[in-house]
Amino acid sequence: MSKLDFPSTYRSPETSRLEYFYDRPGTMPGQLHLSEDAPPAELVSIDYDRDSFSRTIIKDPETINEYLKTHTVSWIDVLGLGNNATWEALGSIFNLHQMLVEDIVNVPQRPKVEDYQDQLLIIATMVILNPDRNGFVKEQVSLVLGKNYLLTVQEEPEQDCFHGVRKRIELDRGIVRKQGADYLAYCLLDAIVDGFFPVLEYYGELIEELENEVITRPTRSTLEKIYKIRRELLTIRRAIWPQRDAINSLIRDGSDLISNDVQVYLRDCYDHTVQVMDMVETYRELATGLMDVYLSAVSNKMNEIMKLLTVVSAIFIPLTFIAGVYGMNFDRSKSPLNMPELGWYWGYPFCLALMGITAGSLVFFFWKRGWFKSVI
Amino acid sequence: MSKLDFPSTYRSPETSRLEYFYDRPGTMPGQLHLSEDAPPAELVSIDYDRDSFSRTIIKDPETINEYLKTHTVSWIDVLGLGNNATWEALGSIFNLHQMLVEDIVNVPQRPKVEDYQDQLLIIATMVILNPDRNGFVKEQVSLVLGKNYLLTVQEEPEQDCFHGVRKRIELDRGIVRKQGADYLAYCLLDAIVDGFFPVLEYYGELIEELENEVITRPTRSTLEKIYKIRRELLTIRRAIWPQRDAINSLIRDGSDLISNDVQVYLRDCYDHTVQVMDMVETYRELATGLMDVYLSAVSNKMNEIMKLLTVVSAIFIPLTFIAGVYGMNFDRSKSPLNMPELGWYWGYPFCLALMGITAGSLVFFFWKRGWFKSVI
Amino acid sequence: MSKLDFPSTYRSPETSRLEYFYDRPGTMPGQLHLSEDAPPAELVSIDYDRDSFSRTIIKDPETINEYLKTHTVSWIDVLGLGNNATWEALGSIFNLHQMLVEDIVNVPQRPKVEDYQDQLLIIATMVILNPDRNGFVKEQVSLVLGKNYLLTVQEEPEQDCFHGVRKRIELDRGIVRKQGADYLAYCLLDAIVDGFFPVLEYYGELIEELENEVITRPTRSTLEKIYKIRRELLTIRRAIWPQRDAINSLIRDGSDLISNDVQVYLRDCYDHTVQVMDMVETYRELATGLMDVYLSAVSNKMNEIMKLLTVVSAIFIPLTFIAGVYGMNFDRSKSPLNMPELGWYWGYPFCLALMGITAGSLVFFFWKRGWFKSVI
Amino acid sequence: MSKLDFPSTYRSPETSRLEYFYDRPGTMPGQLHLSEDAPPAELVSIDYDRDSFSRTIIKDPETINEYLKTHTVSWIDVLGLGNNATWEALGSIFNLHQMLVEDIVNVPQRPKVEDYQDQLLIIATMVILNPDRNGFVKEQVSLVLGKNYLLTVQEEPEQDCFHGVRKRIELDRGIVRKQGADYLAYCLLDAIVDGFFPVLEYYGELIEELENEVITRPTRSTLEKIYKIRRELLTIRRAIWPQRDAINSLIRDGSDLISNDVQVYLRDCYDHTVQVMDMVETYRELATGLMDVYLSAVSNKMNEIMKLLTVVSAIFIPLTFIAGVYGMNFDRSKSPLNMPELGWYWGYPFCLALMGITAGSLVFFFWKRGWFKSVI
Amino acid sequence: MSKLDFPSTYRSPETSRLEYFYDRPGTMPGQLHLSEDAPPAELVSIDYDRDSFSRTIIKDPETINEYLKTHTVSWIDVLGLGNNATWEALGSIFNLHQMLVEDIVNVPQRPKVEDYQDQLLIIATMVILNPDRNGFVKEQVSLVLGKNYLLTVQEEPEQDCFHGVRKRIELDRGIVRKQGADYLAYCLLDAIVDGFFPVLEYYGELIEELENEVITRPTRSTLEKIYKIRRELLTIRRAIWPQRDAINSLIRDGSDLISNDVQVYLRDCYDHTVQVMDMVETYRELATGLMDVYLSAVSNKMNEIMKLLTVVSAIFIPLTFIAGVYGMNFDRSKSPLNMPELGWYWGYPFCLALMGITAGSLVFFFWKRGWFKSVI
């Protein structure tokens, strides 16, 4: 079970549409889906204790063994998923279980915590607000916590939210240098959870903007925006929900690898996760409410359109009828009964007055019912 | 862990939009977000037992140590979040854990109870009905309960709902002077929970008003009001829900710091929290129901508008057609078949009668179906 | 803790709008909200065992002590909430805890069961169908069960549902005279729960009536009725839900005051509560469904109105156009091309035929699509 | 507690509207609601073991005692609820608790299992598809399981679903003759649960039919049908939900009266109950979805009606206007500017051409936007 | 209990409409519903250990006994449900409980795990994406896990998703040849769960397509598609939900038949099941959201239609009225007041100008309100 076999496979492009990674039916469990010609992952080792600090880019994985022996805490940061060679090397150095490696490599997985006796695997999802503010990117971060080391694997090496932690270690701020690998794992988890807040803040602003838009000028694009927000909040929810369970199981089940001191900190991290979930649920409820409001606002608008049509029709159709009557050609020479009005001295003024009175009373009728207010 | 380091940071304005406080990604856990130039918090000590009572504004925090030794119960009320100096002083006097101080200072946090061996941290949310009746303000109140002291921290010192408790202590009403700090904590929690009721009462009235408005005269602003109420009830719900969990965990998990006598009182406080939640859920259901009613009422109104349009159109369009027919210019001199009606002696009266009968039967048709009732 | 202090307060009228009683922020816990000038409550004692029965109106509360000593089961029925004097007397006779009295007096409270060592407080909600069938009234009934006595307090003394129980005791029907105070408490609880059924029956009938109305002739008042039912079912639900929890906790937690025999009966009472809840939920679902049906029915009706308008317009507008064409005044003397139809021998009949064919084919078109069925 | 008293009461007709039986407020617990002049129930005894079988219609209940002593398994089937005399006899023969008899007689009750030391009361609901396929009938079946006997009571003796079980016993098919009364009880429960499937199948078909109807030709009666299905599925759900709980509690809590072998069979019966619930929930979701589809389809249809109206109006109204212009009577003799078109040689053809071009471009405009597709 | 009796019955065609198999009321529990003239099932035995591998098509079921004795792991794959003869033979060879065989044969059953002391029955549902991409097919797979054998039964032998597992065993890839029958069972379960992903991927694509369609061009067929997706996701959900419970109970309850090593793998399989459920729920929420969007989009479209109608009507109806006025025939010779405009020199130009100004200001009015944007 300790030896890993890496058949040459590739990560099929069609998996991108799905939320989670899946083995195409027929593939073996524990198989790594990595492209053979992918570059090896870049390895960065940060090694520290109370008094010393070193940051090294590792060329030959074998040198990691040295770090594991000499320093108190070794943080091996794997940037990118690497290739099979990477994992053959890391697998034997850290003695990783086949299923553990599979969960790290076959991304994305659902956040979870798994206990492999002397190692703890923590799968987390990191979200990063996109700089051009058009949404966010999601990325899996895997943490393998051992006695005096922490192995972290990031899907996309370009950006992460661990910058603050690295600086704190280097400058010896806070208590991170005085604590073990478990505290480091907590710091990273905390940074990941804190990364959700700016994303939520962005959606909070979006919803606030939409609240105005939906009532005052609902258009087709409003609808699209509401739907998009609902969809993306669903994605965030799916990322944070299992994360909460994972952190909770860390606290509840305990582990020899996590000291009591760090438990207190994890409790704080758990609170933050609950706060994120709280906000996601709130925003989801608001977005659902907005959809209701949208539907009502569209109906409202239709009412106003209909009112306008009705006012115009109801006023002019009777008038047109009157004009039509006096446009008839009954032969006045044949009978005094045939349209005598046409021959009256006051015929035309009488007719205009009739029209005026008709229009006036209709306008009055609509004005009384307050239709002009909302129409014009 | 006992020493606190306070880097100079400021509370960024953009956090105001969010429900909860969050560390900007990259900041250290346990860091206090206080402006360096903020004034120190005002400290008020109320010190009492069965026989004595003193109320002092504390200038030098070190004097608190005296109060902690001499009197039975010391209530240190911190008005405002203060600055780093405030917390350095209080932290060493009360021997506060770094994470505890962070939860107090980095507001708002989710209500919760945390047990720090010889101290109990209770985070609660206080809501106060706005005097100009346009909603409510929300504020975090933190309680640190020790053996013979209670440290309370209020976000906004201008207003609170502890006035009644202070008066009771001073005038020795009820049993508060005969009990310990745990009873005092209960009194304050009870006052906080009772503060939700006037706010809910306000929303109850609002909903009652809207119930009339939504059925008789639904307008765009009705929609806005319903949405606003739903949104604000969501906020109250988010405040009271964790508060219930917190008080429940106080009762269930027990603590050496809370006597059995006070447990009975806490049970009553828990009942009140459940009542608040009950009412919030009820109001939320009513508000959701109102949205349905609104949509139906708008559709109803459209029906009436359409009926009016249809009645007017259906009556006058056929009449206009008849008038149009007799306005045609067929040459009667060319053929006796060309519009002989125009030459009849009773031509015009016959035509008017035709119109009258047409209109009459249409009116009868609509009257039978009851359209006039709802239209006019 | 045994001494009660009753400050003179009054029950503020503005609390009536709220579902539950609440202390105005600033008041003391355990304070009774009774008007100083309220009359003392009327006390009725029913005292019985296997062989004896007496029913007395008690003038001087002190005489209760006699009843408590001599007879097996003493049922003290307090009609009305009384004043402070009433509770000072009762408090010392029955040795009532301050919080227990508060729950009895500061109505309404949420139904619950609380264990005070040698006393069991049961708060229940009684609903009584209004005789003029316009809804129901809600009232709190509090039961204090002791070893050989039962103290009951009713908010409104005018009406209750205990008549049957009183008669059964007096006439020695059933086993009530052979059992203790716990069986009496069960009988009263059972009568309270049974009181929900006629109210639900009333709403069942209302819903059945509305089902017809909503599909055949939906009007604005239908909407109001549906909303009213939803609102009132919400009230009943809020009354019965905690009642179930209360009775369940009686069964589950047990108590020395309740014998095993009575447990069997309570199980039956619990079943009835679940049945009430079941029906309330069903009615609520039906009412929600009715709202959907209403919205659909209104849309349906609009469709029919629109169809009528469209049929009338589509038939007459083309006809009016034809009439309009032959009403034009082109100068036939100037050109043989100018409206030669007007000079034809069969001109007018041709024109009428054209109109007839046009109208006929439109009517056929609409008839084929089945529009006349739903319109006329 | 063993003696039953049966006051002469009758089952009031107005209870029929309610889902569950309830005592009118004021009646005694444990009272049987049976008409005094009801005929006694018919009793059928089926008595069998491995080798013998007898089926007897019992005239004198006292003879049951004989059956209880001599044969291994005695199934006493009570057809109809009988009268007080029936239950006085059965009560003393089987030594039935007052509350047990009440649950059997005061139908309908919620399905449940109750343990009376040496007897197990199982209340179940049987549904039978109505032969004329217009719904289903619901009936309570009560089973009292003793050591070597099973007493079953059916509300309506005309129809049941136990025919198969009776035949199996008589013909000695399967293992029923080799097992005890507990296996017989299982067989009956299984038959009851299996009886739900044909009813659900019927509703499955109804929903499938409605799916077509709702999209292609939604009418008012479609709406009524959807609502009816929702309502009846609610009834089935209310019948099967507590049945599942009842069977589950049989398995979970165990009982001396049920052997381990029969437990395996009950597990299978439980699975069937869950399947029924599964299907009910699915159908309910489908019916709710259908309501949404209905609303959308009605809106869709209105769109098409409006399109037709708009097409007709938009094409003919401008044409009518043109005709109206050339129907004006400006005096051409007074001024060459007054409607010179009327005197043109090509005046009328020009006018017709203008109309043709106008109509043509409007038709093109609507055709381009695809309106004709959906309208005609 | 070990002997099986197989009465000749047939699987009624009308059960196909139902989700689950059910005994027609009146049939015996444990009876197999197989057609007497059905062909016997094809049996394939795959027999392997570390060093050997054989694949045999079994003619005479009795030879299975040989396989069970000689080889380490025997996988007996039963293709098709077979007939009574098949199950009589298999029943006696594997010593199968009557209820176990019933669950295998009377398909479909709800996924579940049942423990028969020395055998574990696992019922699973396999979904296979239909090659012509018009949905998926569902099939029951039953696994009977013994000490050194695995019996699998497939409803439809034509297609399964076990191809990959067979190849892995034959080519000795991975660790399957080094593990027992429990690992083989895990491999098959994993293959079944992985089979859900392509189906979900298909629905994910469908939803993505619909998202565009619903906003830009909502038609009646869009509605049908959304409803179809909702319905089919409901089916998938009903298949995966109990599967999760089944696998969870395998992990939680354990079994002597499953080694600790395989438990680790089952945990992974469980994770995949949760991921499937997660995605199904997400897609269901999206589909529900799409229905809301559809309704809003249809309303939106109606608004645009109404706007067009209103614009056309509001502009031309007043113009037609003006034309009507000057088409009246008042006798100008009788009075100078009768339509003097007709005799003006600038009469006609004035009239046209009046019409132009009227039309122009109406167009301006609508243009200002932005109606032309959305209409044309």
TrEMBL record, chains A, B, C, D, E:
Keywords: Cell membrane, Ion transport, Magnesium, Membrane, Transmembrane, Transmembrane helix, Transport
Residue spans crossing the bilayer: 308-326, 346-367
Protein name (record): Magnesium transport protein CorA
Cross-referenced Pfam families: CorA (PF01544)
GO molecular function: cobalt ion binding; cobalt ion transmembrane transporter activity; magnesium ion binding; magnesium ion transmembrane transporter activity
Membrane topology: Multi-pass membrane protein
Known function: Mediates influx of magnesium ions.
Organism lineage string: Bacteria, Bacillati, Cyanobacteriota, Cyanophyceae, Gomontiellales
Gene Ontology CC: plasma membrane
Main location: membrane
Domain of life: Bacteria
Gene name in the database record: corA
Gene3D superfamilies: CorA soluble domain-like, Magnesium transport protein CorA, transmembrane region
Organism: Chamaesiphon minutus (strain ATCC 27169 / PCC 6605)
Family designation: Belongs to the CorA metal ion transporter (MIT) (TC 1.A.35) family.
Location within or outside the cell: Cell membrane; Membrane
